[in-house]
Amino acid sequence: MKKDKFEIVVSGAAQISHCCKNIRKLSKELGKEIARQNCNLVTGATTGVPYLAAQGCKEAGGFNIGFSPAVSEAAHLKKYKLPLDVFDVIIYTGADYAGRNLMMTKSADGVIIICGRIGTLHEFATAFEIQKPIGVLEGSGGTADKIRMIATGPYRGVKKIIYGKDPKKIVRKLIQVIKKEKGRNNKILK
User: Fold this and answer.
1) Structural domain boundaries of the chain?
2) Tens digit of each residue's pLDDT, the chain (190 residues)
3) Kind and range of the H or E run holding 41
4) Which residues contact 186 (CB under 8 A, 6 or more apart)?
């Protein structure tokens, strides 16, 4: 079965003070490009970079899926103090941040890292270990600017990492890698 729409995670910092100066613009542009490429945006239903990407996606007419660490909408709002307004669907995992990160990352076709802190590193490591295609927006600060160093040296499997500084190019290249991988998977099924 051919899948025309892909789910792409945007993983990045919920607090953006350590990110590059134009992080708001980069994040929104990333979300807009995901929508323009007819893909669904997946985030941790949180603030900062993921929220800005979701705003951009929504502005471009896209579809946002949020994976909440909370068990319910009430907990999402009261305990975690996270937004609801830009999401079309929120999956309440009840798995706190680490469990949410794992479920969200495994559910997607690809992951884009932009800025980030330790949670973003966890999402990158999960995607890397399960061999998801990964895009890294270098120059955005935080975790994203450390990935090249982290991803060198001994590792198992095949690296599927795309590096770049342009949100539009990262999204397009990531989709190409996803399509190539899906084509290989379809050949295996036949």
Assistant:
1) 7-189
2) 445 799 999 999 999 999 999 999 999 999 999 999 999 999 999 999 999 999 999 999 999 999 999 999 999 999 999 999 999 999 999 999 999 999 999 999 999 999 999 999 999 999 999 999 999 999 999 999 999 998 887 666 667 899 999 999 999 999 999 999 887 766 666 6
3) strand 40-43
4) 2
Domain range 7-189, CATH architecture: 3-Layer(aba) Sandwich (3.40)
d(CA 136, CA 116): 11
Question: If phi over 0 gives left and psi between -120 and 50 gives alpha, with beta otherwise, what is residue 45?
Answer: left
SS3 annotation, 88-141: CEEEECCCHHHHHHHHHHHHCCEEEEECCCHHHHHHHHHHHHCCCCEEEECCCE
